[in-house]
Specification:
Elements lengths: L9 E2 L2 E2 H14 L1 H32 L13 H12 L8 H4 E3 L8 H9 L5 H27 L17 H4 L3 H21 L6 H21 L1 H17 L4 H10 L1 H15 L5 H8 L5 H10 L9 H22 L10 H4 L1 H15 L3 E2 L4 E2 L5 H11 L10 H30 L3 H6 L6 E5 L20 H6 L2 E3 L10 E3 L25 E5 L20 E7 L2 E6 L10
Parallel strand pairs: 6-7, 6-9
Antiparallel strand pairs: 1-2, 3-8, 4-5, 9-11, 10-11
Length: about 575
Amino acid sequence: MSDGGGAENRSGWLPRRAWTRVVDHLRELWRPLGKAAAWVHLGGESRIFFLIVVMVLLAANLAPLVVTKYLPFSDLMGHQGLLGALAHRGDPEARIDEYFTIDIRLLPSILYAAFVAVLSEVLSVPVASNLFLAIFCITAVPLAMIYALRSFGKDERLVVLVFPLLYHRCIWFGFVNYVACIPLIVVSLAVLNRVLQDDPPLPWVRLRRLLALAVCAVLIVAAHAFGALAFFGLATLLLVASWRRPLAVARAVAAVVPALWYLGRWVLQFTGGKGGSSTVQEILGAAHSIKGDFTLFHGWTINGFAGRVDDWALLGLLVSLVGAAAWTIRHRETPAAREGLLWRYRTVILFLVALHAFFALPMEISHPPWWAVSVRFVPLAWLFAVLALPRATRRVPWRILAPAVLSGLLYGGYLTYDFRTWFRGVETAGLDEALDDIPRGVRVHALVPDFENERHYRHSPFGHVVTSYVVRRGGYAVPMMDGTSEVWVRTRPRPPFAFWGLARHFSWSAHGRFWDYFLVKDPPPGQPPLPPLFRDAPQGAVALVSRHGLWRVYRRVTEAPPTSTP
């Protein structure tokens, strides 16, 4: 037979010898690149189609982060405000030292801050922040799930089920540190699973897995402390399930010792060595209702818009998930006789424990001061539900996965359209111009509409919008994200300000006379207007500086009282 022509000599979409030469050349350049090329070719046209689907879905869900600088994620602007202070600390006109204390040290939950702080030397803080979201919160999730599905022996096509869930409610609330932790938890559990499996034939492979586990565990702590606690709890389940492999368990425990030290050091400093008995009492005493919990679970899935768009995306996911469950159960693989029961159903156990954590934990605990505790398990429960599908002898057909693919594609497209036309084109149009009309290094008070009047998104995205002034011009602005000492940037004592910067809570005598400038956000058409803002101010106390779109800037004309200095 000829070297290149016959079907016997072909594998996939290139002649075998030709592709072998390509793979060998790529391996000479970089071994992982050669392995990736071989992985693609061995799968033939089916794997190429899979890669095309994943890349198209990923592009559709990255696009919303590209079309606008400001994103409608509540706490995200607050995080950016603190990093804006860090970026301006060397500028005397910004007066950062008057308003903030900066203490850069080893803490949990600093991955986002470190990433943005480094890149802010060459990029703006919002652009660096959006890049972090693109890498750790969007791209990392399907990549982590592909690796996890392969690690647990599942069909990697099932990764398309996660795309409709990428913009879950934790992202909408701007929990950027915890959201970045989610794919790290998934990939770390997948690496741990491989460490606990039968020993690889080559010692360096085992060492590589242990090193990867150690690095991933440290990154989890660096991403978010609560996520680290969740990971160690879930990892313990896998360790217990592999009790028949004590040597592998010992290696895995040794690999995560640096991460345990990292987290434990912070816990001892934060609690003063007194333990967490009060926290345990809060958890055990949490009140729950079945109807309320199920409503909460739905609300923290992908509930970003005030309309029904999210529900349609969720419906497509559910159709594919139910279909995939029926297919994998029908074609499930016969388990090996040597597998123990716990090890065989370890992914199911992970899913059930994550689900139980949601129903058992309270919404809020006071020490440490964490809000939205139970609901942080919602995205993990969905991801583990995909991993819990049985191992099957046949791949799930694309016709079953098509509704999820369509939902992920259309939802990403809708987000892109909405962020570009509404949030950038209407809500934040003129914001930068308004901020530039405020001098550098002054004190700015936001005045925004009631959060209850938000008609477009499920929640108002403007709770911390004024901190964009700190990002752009330095100085100080309220409401500013604070409330914890476990951050690099802390605010100094400040004058009184209206609760959440809401215009209806604002009073000149109680708040206004202490601030230099006022950034006013008018509601868009169709929403109730703001109340009179300076009704109790002396005549001529404030002057309108500029108006840009829905944004107005006012300047205090009279002198501030001596007590106004933070």
